[in-house]
User: Fold this.
Amino acid sequence: LRGLLSALVDPRLAPALAAIHGAPGEDWTVATLAERAHQSRAAFAQRFNEVLGEPPMRYLARWRMTEALRLLRDPRLSVAAVSGQLGFETEAAFRRGFKRIHGYGPGQARRNARANKA
Assistant:
């Protein structure tokens, strides 16, 4: 089986996914995630890619940007605050990553959230 639901119940992947989802701002590496899953780095990366169809670090980047969308809906949080919560060293790096994943910047995400509330 493939996909997120399969991965969430896979004992070889579930601990790493729980770590990613629970603390997306941590400085995760393939090695630290493999450690959480009690596997070698190579075995973990291969299994992750087989089940989820993408490498662990790409999944992490996408999950961080999914979380960014959620956090940016809160007008009390600045873009810099969201960036820091999600583990980015600079706001500029966050903005670039956000645009790469979503196709538009965090400012546009904020405007979209405000428009949807109105």
In short: The chain has a mean pLDDT of 94. DSSP finds eight helices and no strands in the chain. Residues 69 and 109 are 7 Å apart (CA to CA).
